[in-house]
Structures
1.
Amino acid sequence: MNESGVELRAAPPRPFVKCVGQQQLLNVDLELRNRTGVHCRLVAVEIDVYGDDGTLSLRRVIDEHGLRPPIETIPERELAPDGELCVVSPFHTFDESLVLTRVCFRVRLATTEAAAVVAEHEIPPVVYRTTLARPRLCRRRPRLDASIALTQRRPR
């Protein structure tokens, strides 16, 4: 937990990155625990992606700004005092050219008091690679001859 009183964790702690086609999928949930003693509301989620050399490669933010705020894709955003909230990461798909060496999530919460609360958590994702060839599970079915299929019509 940081000095803000809100704890942010990733589940699982070392998530897998799965390569699918020309995309990378990061499957992670964000778990929030409110230890501030006041009611909080999630107003922004941010992700920073760092490459091999430690430089910032990508930053994405969803928040309450705009005509149709993207934060509304997260249905449950209220966090009671001493409560917990699990949020599926809204940032799950990345281009295959992006190197996901280190990922930092940051959340901003509005409180009933004037000060906003910020919590962050850094994770090192693991690229999932299959090492075994997939076995063939079923035999190939023989094709029906078209002439047989045409002659075997159902009676009316």
Note: The longest strand covers residues 40-50.
2.
Amino acid sequence: MITRGLVVSALVAASAAAMFAASLVRAALPPHIPVVDSTAPESRDTAGTPTPGLDERALRLAAERNPFFAHRGAAPPVEAPAEVAPPPMPETVKVLGTVVLNEKSALAMLQQQGSPPRLVRVGQTFGSWTLDRVEPGRAVLRGADGVELAVLVSRPGR
């Protein structure tokens, strides 16, 4: 038996489906772009300033080449900023481990390629670098020119 409530519910569901379909169609269509005839005389805006007519070719080109997509075209070349030379750093320095007992007592086991590992306390030199501070898992070295270099433990947990 079909009741009045069932008929009303069916009508509401059908109208909701129709409105949803209409909004999907509206969303899928491209927006309307008015084309102004380039041969039209100049018009004036509300302040009285003359505004030239829009070029139809330019409008069509703008509509075809969406400026918000990356494939639009190549950007003009940009000059690369001048590279700052990195400080000379011992590329062969490895931090094998760190020990931090307290703020005043910390050390790191450092190694340069081709030499045995060495325990270095904060304030001691290692090659051309001075061990500035030690944190769990990393050592901070300071060069003679004041440049800091933070080196992480090369293989933590081993």
Note: The longest strand covers residues 94-100.
3.
Amino acid sequence: MDKNCVNYGSSWCIDFECDDCPVRDELQIVESDSIDIEKLRKALSKDFHDLYRPKYTTNWKAERTVRDVEIELIPFDHTKGETKMKTYEEIADHCSMEEPMRTRYIRYMKIRWADTEAQKCRNGYAFKWATRFLNGIEYNASDCTGQSVLRTLNDEQYTVECCSYDELPEQIKEDYLSDNGCGKEYASYLIVKHNGTIIRYESDAMEPEDARFYRDLSWIKEALLEAYNLGREDSNEQ
């Protein structure tokens, strides 16, 4: 393709038939085995990045991410359009999903299609749902069952559990725990999780004179403000 041509450098050059092309008669059919797949992917990505710009679409960043992932998954070797990924975690990582969207997507997929995870990943169905999450249309794209699952996941984003010492996760038991009052083995514990990750744990192992909001109970104020701020962040993510 001539450098003066408006289509020079475009990924469509390999099959573009322009009447004004100065080298049209010199075009040759390129065998797929001789194509540099990586260069082809980069060319396609460049075209879509040029297409999706702030002045053309408001969600241009998400559109670019979706197209890049699609290009990465294109089976240039003509192997039935299947991917080698077998888990929802691999799909999420491949799509560069960030928290809390990553956990939300994986939980949704595992609740709905846990028994066919590998199949859904190989045939592109899991990727289709990943693009829906990336574009923020997972709720509208779901049927009644899916919408119910999403509402349940919303309720699970911030959870608070009460438990005994024996019910604590091992990583918490290995940490320093207050041995005041009745002692850590006989204390009650409060575990706060956000998107399945423990973000805070507290105990009632304290001396009676320290059971004040400005002393051993000062964490309550912090936890309430923390929950409020996380709620605002989660609402902006959805």
Note: The first strand starts at residue 158 and ends at 164.
